[in-house]
Specification:
- The structure is a homodimer.
- Chain A is of the alpha/beta class.
- Chain A contains six helices and 14 strands.
- A nine-stranded mixed beta sheet of chain A has the order 7-6-5-4-8-2-9-14-13.
- The first copy, chain A, starts with 14 loop residues before the first strand and ends with a strand.
- The relative contact order of chain A is 0.20.
- The N terminus of chain A is likely disordered.
- The interface between A and B is large, with 82 and 81 residues.
């Protein structure tokens, strides 16, 4: 069984309620971050970390606008994200997410042990200096996985201060071998628990390759007015059932935890 | 304020729990359908019905496969859908939904008053005889809205038994004027409450035209392995905040009710 979080009451199979903020005796009090103190397990496969994906989507199914997820989730989502980060050894994103906007993959507390930042890249630019905001007291270490090949030597030259570029084997499609990356993180960097924060392509590749253990999904109470996803041809695989492990609500945002 | 449903306990702003079916004292007992006995209000605009949209999406944001939503929701979703239908005067879908598969827009109980079935069509085929499954004891009445124009006379010939074809004004894009349809339903067919069941294009058009009051969203614990929705250009409108009115969980499906 997976660890659950804290002394909350179990719910029955049919549960829920209208939202009634008036009836909240603690209204106005600070509420704990969803996933505060969450204790993630280790992977059953000792060669790789336990891998959890965290993503936020709008009610109409949009997870990013111009590769940016930052406009979708609210403050409870940001606090839940920080709580998840505090329970892992490394935070992974795809290079497109780094290119899209300035982002911080660490914790707010400057005295906290910062998770390792891991970036899965192709041969395109990864503007770490420009876009990765890092705590100055304990500088967050950064690993960039690049596909091995003729470009690798150039990439190595880009390394500086606490950033390491690691050329790794590529698959037939020229993208880095994700299982190799995970095994290297476990073996050489002591990463027992890994949080993946997108983008959607990286999330999907990990799930498809059976390398993701859990999905944390925040459903933001927003319409982004995108055209909904439709599959015009049968998908390459059939539907896959998930197991709902927990759900929470804060300020209209719904926090869902699934076993994959 | 919108009517809420039944004597369930109010929840606080930070709420939720791990799912623990073992601890359910009623495990194995039949649980009531989500939205059983829901009492929808009337529209503040007396010229049209109160309009609620019901849709099911997978965790990866897929609402239909080949226009079919039938493979995504489970039994609790089907029961919630029937409960919503029992609280409205009419159920509306787009013609693409009728073309996609056999479907039933009514209630299971053959003795129940069946809601009016309303189909929003263009000039394409609407295979009512072939695809619309109707209770034989109290035959469900069907209205088909078609855009006025040179095709309208042909369409009228297709009418039979309890099916009425209604040519209505079209907008600049050749599609039926949805506000006109809603006002006609209210005025001539006594429709005070209307449930819309997709597809995504009809849902989106109602929301964009400020004709939808609530969104009922079921989040099914499934991955459909579609490519997630991404907006490559800024959407035509900015994000729109929704208000979460209630949430429930049954068998891993999450039931969300939002005011638009």
């Amino acid at each position: 069984m997976l660890a659950s979080q804290g002394p909350r009451a179990p719910v029955t199979r049919a549960t829920g309620s209208p939202i009634n903020e008036e009836a909240n005796p603690e209204a106005g009090q600070p509420v704990p971050a969803v996933y505060e103190g969450l204790d993630l397990p280790l992977s059953k496969d000792p060669s790789r970390p336990y891998v959890v994906i965290n993503m936020v989507v709008s009610v109409d199914g949009v997870s990013s606008v111009d590769d940016r997820a930052s406009g979708i989730g609210g403050e409870p989502d940001r606090r839940a994200m920080r709580a998840l980060r505090s329970g892992v050894d490394a935070v992974m994103v795809g290079a497109g997410t780094v290119r899209a906007e300035k982002l911080n993959l660490g914790l707010d507390d400057p005295g906290a042990r910062q998770p390792l930042a891991v970036i899965v890249a192709g041969n395109g630019p990864v503007p770490i200096r420009e876009h990765l905001v890092r705590n100055s007291q304990y500088l967050q270490k950064v690993l960039v996985f690049r596909p091995e090949g003729p470009h690798a030597k150039n990439h190595r030259k880009q390394a500086h201060d606490s950033v390491r570029i690691l050329p790794v084997p590529a698959n037939g499609d020229g993208r880095v071998d994700l299982r190799f990356c995970l095994e290297l993180l476990r073996r050489e960097h002591g990463v027992d628990r890994l949080l993946v924060e997108g983008g959607p392509f990286l999330n999907g590749a990990l799930i498809t390759n059976h390398l993701a253990d859990e999905l944390f999904l925040t459903l933001a109470p927003k319409l982004m007015h995108a055209h909904p996803t439709q599959i015009s041809e049968p998908a390459s695989r059939g539907p896959q059932d998930l197991q709902l492990l927990s759900f929470h609500q804060q300020n209209g945002e719904i926090f869902l935890r699934y076993a994959i």
